[in-house]
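Workshop exercise sheet. Pairs work together: one partner reads the sequence aloud, the other fills in the structure field after running the prediction. Swap roles for the next sheet.
Pair: D.N. / O.F.
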Amino acid sequence: ILTELWPDPTVQTFLRPHTTPQSVAIGFVLTVAMTGLTIWLTVRKLVRVPPPTLLRGQTEIAEPDTHPRRRWATVLLVVCLVAAVGSLVGGGFITNPDFRSLSFFGGGALLFAAGLIVARRWLTASHGLARSVGDLSVRNAGRFPGRSVLTVFLIGSATFLLVAVESFRRNPEQDFADKSGGSGGFNLLVESDVPLFNRLDSKAGHDDVLTGLEEYFQERAAKNPTGPDNPALMTAAAATLEGITASVPVRVVAGDDASCLNLYQAGRPRLLGVPDDLIDRGGFRFMATLPHAGDNPWVLLKEPQPDGAVPVFAEQNTVMWMLKIGLGDTVDVQDEAGQPVTCRIVGTLQDSVFQSELVMADEHLRRLHPREEGFRLHLVETKPAAADDVAKLLTAGLSGSGVAVTPSRERVAAFQAVVGTYLTTFQLLGALGLLLGLLGFAVVILRGVWERLSELALLRAVGYPAGTIRRLVLQENLVLLALGVALGLTAAVLSVLPHMALGGRLPWRGVGILLVGVTVVGMIVVTLATRGTARVPILSALRKE
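Structure field:
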């Protein structure tokens, strides 16, 4: 059903079932094992309940909150708080964005655990004389603290997951445009179907663009004779092209897209040959590299390997998930004659524009593909204010070469949107689990009402109105619902705030709508589950007392 409703190919790949006899057998065995464990734990608990209590319809006895238990709870609370603060603060010093998000997520989970300990202590604390129905509701919620805390945990954990998983959602970071960022300082990617032979920051490259623009302006003037004069447009175009501050031509050998946008495993990744200019310039952000001299890891592309392998760079996600290898491992490619050539991963890039290629030195690419002429990829750095105008001029002036100009930020955002799609899928599944948990909450409410029939009948007999009894049970369970949502939301927000301080973003509107919807559904479930409390048969219930 989801694959029909969600046509995105990436989502369909994720949702497409990969069923094998082994997976079916494992799923069946695990289901039976979990069911048997649940039955055993339930029976084990019931046999400890005294028979008179069971005859009264109760399946649980209130356990005293002893002093040693409170002392260990205090120790555990302090440990959770200290570990949570350490995880949230330490995450800001982790450069790996995945591990950093995991650190923030773990800190939020520890805060949530600490909140559960505080909630249990609050529920079991003596609140003095009950002066209102609300006070009595709170005291009733703490009569069976284990059951109440479990309810708070189920609701709060689902709420926490819905919000905290947003910390894993990735966007190009604040320093993406820097030389040491994911773009390497190049804000435009110029790709062409036909090779170009001149650098775009040179006079010859400008002349190529202006020649194409002259033809473009003439065709436009023929369609609109009253438009601007061509000489003025050419003068303005020449001035705009001066906004190109640097350009690096890169040779390209066609192959499979090895990025996460490819639904299939890449058997022959695309190859890029970078010139010495880029190797000497350095830049970009690396996840890991083999040992090298100096501060510029790009020199690894020119260092000979002991086994004669060609040193290459690749994106970390490409290496891990598409090629399924690691740093220092090898991957085979083909040269121009179709012969296998071994390449070694000497460095992995992080959030770069090279997520679908293997990057090697230009001299190695020309050795493997000597007939590959010209450059079909140009890394262009422009003045920030001139980027859009330069992109439009390059697209129009080099249209005869099939040029496509893409901002590097948009390219990386497209790759990271795939991760966002998976996270959205997980959040939807989490929301479904939360709704199922609320239905289970209704079952717990009905069970509690069934166990307290004699108590509710006694309240009716001594003169409490039916509406007051209904409000008593309703408020008692709304306290647990509100406590679960509040704990989960607080822990999630505290875990996401450090991520946002480092440049992350959180779609508050969507998350807020989801939480409001869940809260409203929870209130409806609680209300419906408590409607029957006023219809308790007084005489038959009192006979059980």
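Discussion prompt: Strands lie at 188-196, 244-253, 270-274, 286-289, 310-315, 330-334, 340-349, 357-361, 375-382, 403-407. What would you look at next?
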